[in-house]
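Hey all, sorry for the wall of text incoming. These are the two entities for the joint prediction.
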Amino acid sequence: MILDAAVDGRAHRVEVTGGKGRYTVTIDGRAREVDWRRVGGPFVSLLVDGRSHDVGLEPRPGGYRVLWGSHDFAVDLLEPSRVDAVAPRRAPAGPVRLLAPMPGRIVRVLAEPGQEVEAGQGLVVMEAMKMENELRSPRAGRVVEVHARERQTVETGSLLVVVE
Amino acid sequence: MADRFNKILVANRGEIAVRVIRACREMGIASVAVFSEADRAARHVRLADEAWPIGPARAADSYLRIDRVIEAACASGAEAVHPGYGFLAENARFAQACEEAGLVFIGPRSETITLMGEKTSARRLAVAVGLPVVPGTLEPLADDAAIRQEAERIGFPLMLKAAAGGGGKGLRLVRSAADLVSAAARARSEAQSAFGDDRVYLEKALVRPRHVEIQVMADHHGNVVHLFERECSIQRRHQKVVEESPSPLLTPDLRARMGTLAVALVRKAGYVNAGTLEFLMDESREPYFLEMNTRLQVEHPVTELVTGVDLVKLQIRIAQAERLPFAQEDLVQRGHAIEGRIYAEDPDSGFLPSPGRILALRVPGGPGIRDDSGVEDGDEVPSHYDPLVSKLLAWGEDRASAIARMRRAVREYRVLGIKTTLPFLDRVLRHPDFVAGRIDTSFAERLGRDSPPEEDRPWPVAVAAAAISAFEQRRAARTPSAVPAASAWRREGRVESTGGRG
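and here's what came out:
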């Protein structure tokens, strides 16, 4: 599963794979092996690279509140549209080409050449199957090419935006 | 006076009611709790032997109703009433009502509460025994001409305070003559509505003062002792958040001098039971008497940890007309104690109250830790009352080990469901100025203002924990038996994403 996470005012792209207590969590391209146990109520124990983390988890609108030691985090989670989830899975280094993850219509173009963007910032809004999907920048950087045009119909794999 | 109490009514709620009920249980005395409609299932109700309803949630209709508290005390057959702190604890009419109903008020006599409650009479008494007071007026002022004349004599900046004062009401810092008229008008009208008395007095404002207080205890037989000081300079909005004993600011000589003067004032006032003399200290460490609190203080456990004296039990014994079981020379401060107040407040949004249900609570333990809490797992923190949830204390052989222990305990403490001041306590305990003992009453404000961004926040762990939880939740929702609806965070997320797009 791929998620857009926001914490302390920064956006991160997160991928979770695995199951049954052992997961690989990749945050902005960096993978971590996580051993994860529920330990009663809202508390979980995490072992990450041999380090032990005793964490409290509380669901809140848009994500979770996470207590770690005396640190209090508000983590926002947003699942990008399912089809989007298969597209920008490349490592966020070097120029990144944002491709249309599905056939559909470009509703809005949110970026222009030369613009500085944050990781997770929306670049293009596509409509497919009567649903609008925001396609986000997989990395922070500068927009160098914009191929998408509003009201244009595109096929899967059409080049939309390049960020470097 | 009763020889020994069989039953005590505790006229309070929250952690202090729990504290007094525990003392009663240890002494073999039955305890009677009182509760408002909001507190039916509160911890103090559950721990007490008996519990009597005294009215609706609003404090004015329940915990502040003298008639209902007295009625509950008489109906339950209690012989004595412990008022805790706050609510009716410094209300002379309540103490008098207890006396008239034949109940022992566990505290000073009602006349002494009146004497000390009137701040200018307390100041005059202090001057009479040679206690230095903050320069200012010794008589209450009732008209603007007198206020102006005295203000010019004292000089600016100065503090305008309600003569009947307390709790920060009717309190104004006046920086210049130009602000005096409007500040006086507001202070007087606040004092009028809070205390029914609009007289004020003036005190010179000290620059970055320290707040140090002396605990005293007096029996009915003329024995008076002091139990040393508590340092209470870490305050936000004139309310204490971190207290400790000994104070890193006092020398042995100064401690002895302040203690001796405090005992002199207590003798002169004919004071009985527990009390606290508050002092301000200026940058030259010259102490000035501020006021006397005629009750148990919130931060009394700090003194208990360093002296080994159970102040609540001692209050009860003194109310039973027993003699103080020790003399001044028997008392020593052993090691160092720190208290941090855990309020249901959000330190990241200006200490806004954060009432609500406690989803989960994990309380630290281990060597040298004490948690005086009014709540447990699943309890509601009502919005009607003071947001103090618990007091966490650490004792260590010296100040450094007490700080280290306190930091350890703060990190172990977990409260889910509401926001608390725990992250703020951690910031105080880690601050180099606090560690070095460089503290004054503006410390907490400065901490909030120029606190550097934390670089060591383990945010990837937080993100991983949240993401795995979301992942597992979706997987659970996908199993054939589960309802196929999107989980709450996904629904919320979608609302946000659609909203943000428009």
